[in-house]
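Long-time lurker, first post. I've been practising inverse folding by hand and with some scripts of my own, and I keep getting stuck on stretches where the structure tokens seem ambiguous. Below is the full token string for one chain I'm working on. Before anyone asks, I'm not after the true native sequence, just a reasonable design that respects the backbone. If someone could post their per-position residues I'd love to compare against what I wrote down in my notebook.
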């Protein structure tokens, strides 16, 4: 801990005074004054901090954290999946990267439908056909080439060690394995990796992954080529061919990670940079916040019916647009005006401040019977480096343990389920989507991942993102609303209960204890349907920069088992 840091802490405590019973409001999150890493696993956070201590920038640390999560968070961390990264260089330049999975070249629009045209249950979720061509390794290589300052191999080495020596099974890991044990046992490849003794490894034991260690070593030595053209590509293509999967060596060789234009917009004096298509995150968040900017939200108390109503109506309208308009920009004709700042403002014109608008009246073309289920896994990490560079990155294999299919010690995604399996039919997150997200060969399924960096007065103010399927966008948006409109610290905003509306199903989803009965009654009178969720969704990993003292505050969502730490 630096002298400056200690001095400021002493000063702040002194100025609070012994007579003041009030703690500083920033007491609670991790506090540092030079660098901060927040990820869903303590081992990965420490790996990132080590890289920063060795002089690496935020992207160096992000690559190391990404690979460490592939070992220590097998349900979501990955080399067999994809993701997005928002990078803000030390000089302020912002870049966004897309390493989302692609549909196989042999994919067809109706590949998950039976002869009668109905979705075959589970086909886009479990097994070899659910897998999109993985993008993570290409993505890490691209951001390394563009921004990396430390050798590629050195950034993967910590992950190799964690796979070889094993990581300690903590209660969160155990719960994730135990909770999914029935599915895992059905797939011998998955069980061999996760249940080496036949059962979920006990808390406190070490989970070693020798096959994954070998694969990571190949990637460390051979770079992305070994994954997309070499030995690992052979293993993936052979397993696919033997089991009715569609991914070939041609799919792998053709995969490209891409830089995409960021979605950048202003919200009440803050400049927000987030991910554009093929993620829907940035634009949908922009449309929600632009609608809310037409109200003085802070006039209505936090989580009052008047505030929740306005937020929900904005969410409903933004998701309606998302579900109709958005898809992979290399394929879908996204109307140019939808990208422009101000598109969301117009959506607010139809908001009735007293009554809920039925979703059937907004984008009625999406209206259909919906069978939603609960979301499972993905992971986000946030980093600020001593040089001032920052990264927000969200990565996934979609469902927990993806398709449950494994090759060379790692799990393959089931990202194809994010595409429109059939227009008007809900996916695993209850999202009812349109033709813009229909399956085409080589097309990226639309994502909701929303890695985000926020500036104020030209400096980084917040870095954040979360898992949570379709709730990702509303979780990130609400944390920002709670901080910007309601004056919460980012840690307070992270801890606050969240609500969600996604156009269809037409109801407000509420976290346990998220709204008082009084508020529920008022909202019901206004025409809303309310559903309390069985559990929590989203694990937001946040960093706030305190301009007054130069502190960095990190908060790993209390809903998860991660670690915020810095120096
Ligand atoms: O890309 C997406 O939007 C989804 N595949 C994310 C899945 C997810 O967050 C599951 N987790 N909780």
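-- Answer (accepted) --
I ran through it position by position. Result:
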């Amino acid at each position: 801990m630096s002298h400056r840091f200690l001095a400021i802490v002493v000063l702040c405590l002194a100025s609070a005074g012994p007579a003041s019973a009030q703690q500083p409001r920033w007491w609670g999150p991790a506090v540092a004054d030079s660098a901060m890493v927040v990820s869903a696993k303590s081992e990965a956070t420490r790996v990132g901090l080590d890289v920063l201590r060795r002089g690496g920038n935020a992207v160096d640390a992000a690559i190391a954290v990404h690979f460490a999560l592939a070992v220590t968070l097998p349900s979501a961390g990955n080399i067999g999946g994809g993701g997005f990264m928002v990078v803000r260089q030390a000089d302020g330049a912002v870049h966004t990267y897309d390493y989302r999975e692609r549909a196989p070249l042999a994919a067809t629009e109706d590949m998950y439908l039976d002869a009668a045209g109905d979705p075959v249950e589970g086909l886009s979720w479990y097994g070899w056909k659910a897998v999109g061509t993985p993008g993570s390794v290409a993505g890490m290589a691209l951001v390394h080439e563009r921004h990396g300052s430390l050798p590629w191999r050195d950034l993967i080495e910590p992950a190799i060690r964690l796979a070889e020596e094993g990581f300690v099974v903590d209660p969160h890991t155990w719960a994730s394995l135990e909770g999914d044990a029935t599915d895992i046992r059905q797939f011998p490849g998955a069980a061999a990796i996760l249940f080496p003794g036949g059962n979920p490894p006990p808390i406190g034991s070490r989970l070693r992954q020798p096959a994954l260690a070998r694969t990571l070593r190949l990637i460390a030595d051979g770079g992305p080529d070994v994954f997309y053209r070499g030995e690992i590509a052979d293993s993936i293509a052979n397993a696919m061919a033997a089991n009715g999967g569609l991914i070939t060596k041609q799919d792998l060789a053709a995969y490209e990670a891409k830089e995409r234009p960021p979605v950048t917009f202003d919200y009440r004096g803050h400049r927000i940079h987030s991910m554009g298509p093929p993620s829907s995150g940035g634009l949908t968040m922009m449309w929600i916040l632009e609608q809310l900017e037409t109200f003085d939200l802070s006039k209505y108390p936090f989580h009052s019916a008047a505030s929740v109503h306005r937020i929900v109506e904005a969410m409903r309208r933004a998701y309606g647009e998302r579900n109709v308009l958005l898809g992979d920009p290399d394929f879908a004709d996204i109307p140019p005006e939808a990208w422009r700042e101000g598109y969301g403002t117009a959506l607010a014109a139809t908001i009735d401040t007293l009554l809920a608008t039925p979703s059937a009246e907004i984008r009625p073309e999406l209206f259909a019977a919906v069978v939603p289920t609960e979301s499972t896994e993905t992971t986000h990490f946030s980093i600020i480096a001593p040089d001032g560079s920052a990264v927000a990155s969200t990565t996934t294999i979609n469902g927990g343990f993806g398709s449950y299919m494994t090759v060379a010690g790692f799990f393959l995604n089931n990202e194809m389920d994010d595409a429109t399996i059939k227009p008007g039919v809900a996916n695993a997150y209850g999202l009812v989507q349109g033709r813009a997200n229909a399956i085409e060969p080589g097309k990226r399924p639309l994502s909701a991942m929303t890695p985000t960096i926020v500036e104020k007065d030209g400096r980084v103010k917040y870095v954040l993102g979360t898992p949570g399927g379709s709730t990702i966008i509303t979780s990130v948006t609400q944390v920002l609303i709670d901080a910007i409109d309601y004056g919460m610290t980012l840690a307070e905003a992270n801890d606050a209960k969240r609500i969600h509306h996604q156009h269809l199903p037409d109801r407000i989803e509420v976290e346990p204890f998220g709204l008082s009965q009084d508020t529920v009654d008022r909202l019901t009178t206004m025409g809303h349907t309310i559903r309390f969720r069985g559990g929590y969704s989203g694990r937001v990993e946040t960093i706030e920069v305190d301009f007054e003292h130069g502190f960095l505050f990190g908060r790993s969502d209390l809903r998860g088992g991660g670690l915020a730490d810095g120096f």
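A couple of notes from the structure itself: The chain has two domains: 38-84+100-256+401-437, 260-374+449-558. The chain is about 35% helix and 15% strand. Happy to go over any region you disagree with.
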